[in-house]
Amino acid sequence: METNPIPVVTVQTSPFDDQRPGTNGLRRKTEVFEGKKNYLQNYIQSLLSSIDLRDRQGCTMVVGSDGRYFSRAATEVIVQMAAANGIGRLVIGHNGLLSTPAVSCIIRKIKAIGGIILTASHNPGGPGGDFGVKFNVANGGPSPDTVMEKIAQVSRTLEEYTICPDLRIDLARLGRHDFDLENKFKPFRVEIVDSVDVYLNMLRTIFDFSAIKSLLTGPEQLKIRVDAMNGVMGPYVRRILCDELGAPANAAVNCVPLEDFGGRPPEPSLTYAAPLVDAMKGGDFGFGAALDADGDRYMILGENGFFVNPSDSLAVMAANLSCIPYFRQLGLRGFARSMATSTALDRVAKALKVTLYETPTGWRFFGNLMDSGSCSLCGEESFGTSSDHIREKDGLWSVLVWLSIMAVRKQGVEEIVKDHWAKLGRNYFCRFDYEGVDPRAAFYLMRDLEGVITDKAFLTQKFAVGTNVYCVERADNFEYIDPVDGTVVRNQGLRIVFTDASRLVFRLSGSGGGAGATVRIYAESYERDPERHNRETQAVLGPLIAIALKISDIHERTGHRGPTVIT
């Protein structure tokens, strides 16, 4: 306990007009948060002030980061401002590190009012990279639109913030630290907790750890390789997969969290996890996985580098949840996917007679379904999958689901996926990202394209590409009516569905760091014939992509010669 009360200081400031959080919180170039005077302080004050004063006084909040550059300095500011604004207790991960799934888990476990996560997910780190501040609410999930709008309203008129600039906390010292503040009746408490403990204990209640351990250590030991991409997941991978489940230490690579993630974007994709892909192609490992900076996204690879499309991963998980004790006990209450995700999950839902929900992109939409008991498993095509055990995407949980399926079925990744296709058909799927597009050009492209596809004449269109003919069945701008509370969300992406179940989807992404807009094009084609399940994805989807490029005129309108990233 400090001997002299720490002063609470009010600082005059001016509002910023760009602090409305997006799908994943407020993301900007790191230099904006670090270099613009009071930019971070204004946003944290707006966030704290958006919580009703009666709820805020004496409440508990969780704070964690993915370890990227500027996280430690930002955590100190958050501690100082939380104290000054009446928060009673902060629970912070050791050295400031907590994965996004762990934050969600701890919020729910200790019944906190919410949590602040310092992450820009899979975006680059370092001084020249991106930084983000995300606020998760009491259910452990991302802020709903109402909360984001409240934060934005406060930010537009903010004239002052309160802070305890003399309060210092050692993030490396585990345990409780109490501070006396001026004009406060109760001491302010900071608890530095082990980053992995609570999350690991939760996983033990979900999975059969002994079955996974036997898979990784038994006579026919499965050799695995997991790349933590120098993000927050290093300590989790080592502790859970190596120490707890018996994988050898060299199964876990890039497990030291670095502020710049080793100089590469911490994105679990074929492009940015290329060293893992190369290692898997060598044939020495039967299972590979990569995890992003904050631990909510993942990629699965099989022997010889067999890539599992994230939409397929979601569908395979759904079809095999009986391999997981958690689901055997609780049963299945529904599946959900974002609209842009392939319809492979729909076919599993139909086969299992489970309700399927199609939502906009953004994990918060799944939260309502899970809170109401309507949904057991959900996922997005952007390498995010989870269940109702928390209210966030969960990369390591997804890895353990796959290992559980392999342990029960005694099959490799490729065999499991191809067996799934043989039973339910294959949904060929890919995504083209056009990054750094001029925001005005992106806006007008989407506006004009909507005009084209919603014209009545478009519904009679036939597109001939080579020997392929695609007939439009329906086209719209996706609108979602929440089945739980009736909330209506519009303008969630343009979609074209053809009579053969092929689809094209166009979306403006809300998860960038502020350097231009990202336009995403998704193409999907369903194939029932097992004889045609081993074709190259780009060859199958080439005709659909040609249609997408033609009707959107995206290359001419954006100045891009081609997509920035293909997944």
Automatic annotation (TrEMBL):
Keywords: Cytoplasm, Magnesium, Metal-binding, Phosphoprotein. GO terms for molecular function: magnesium ion binding; phosphoglucomutase activity. One of its GO terms (cellular component) is sarcolemma. One of its GO terms (biological process) is striated muscle tissue development. InterPro entries: A-D-PHexomutase_a/b/a-I (IPR005844), A-D-PHexomutase_a/b/a-I/II/III (IPR016055), A-D-PHexomutase_a/b/a-II (IPR005845), A-D-PHexomutase_a/b/a-III (IPR005846), A-D-PHexomutase_C_sf (IPR036900), A-D-PHexomutase_CS (IPR016066), Alpha-D-phosphohexomutase_SF (IPR005841), PGM (IPR045244). PANTHER family: PHOSPHOGLUCOMUTASE-LIKE PROTEIN 5, PHOSPHOHEXOMUTASE FAMILY MEMBER. It holds the Pfam family PGM1_C_vert_fung. The keyword Magnesium applies. Belongs to the phosphohexose mutase family. It is found in: Cytoplasm. Residues 19-160, 199-305, 328-423 form the Alpha-D-phosphohexomutase alpha/beta/alpha domain. This is Phosphoglucomutase-like protein 5.
